[in-house]
Amino acid sequence: MLNGYWPILLFLVVAGAIGVALIVIGWIAGPRRPSAEKYSPYECGFEAFEDARMKFDVRYYLIAILFILFDLEIAFLFPWATVFPRIGIVALIEMFTFLLLLVVGYVYVWKKGALEWD
What is the chain's Cα-based Rg? Predict the structure, then answer.
């Protein structure tokens, strides 16, 4: 019964061995010349000018979450569209309900000003 899974197990073992081998080769062959300059903070060619624990604007995260939400909406639409001819009118109504809920959420976020970038 498990004979069909041997290629998968072999693939996982070979992939793991290659990953471990590359890490070990990099550790053995890589240069080791630490210096104070290598360990200093570096931000886009400039010295760090503020503390790393400064307050961060939450709007960055809000925009990222909204992007993921609407990106996942598209991810749900593709499988639905491929099987649409076989699932009928009920699935069409359900998908329109799903999209309507997302549009309502988008309008709510828009009206709240979450998409405004000051």
Answer: 25
CB 42 within 8 A of CB 48: yes
Q: 107-112: which pairs have CB atoms within 8 A and are 24 or more residues apart?
A: 109/66
With beta carbons less than 8 A apart as the criterion, state whether 70 and 106 touch: yes
The whole-angstrom separation of Cα 77 and Cα 8 is: 30
Give dist(CA 108, CA 102) in Å, integer: 10
Q: What secondary structure does DSSP assign to 51-68, as a single string?
A: -TT----THHHHHHHHHH
**Contact status, residue 54 vs residue 65, Cβ threshold 8 Å:** no
pLDDT in tens, 57-96: 777 787 788 888 888 888 888 888 888 888 888 888 988 9
Give the torsion through C-alpha atoms of 36, 51, 64, 101, to 10 deg: 150
* Residue owning tokens 């309507």: 100
Which residue ranges form the domains of the chain, and what is each CATH number? Answer: 2-112 (1.20.58.1610)
Q: What is the pTM of this model?
A: 0.46
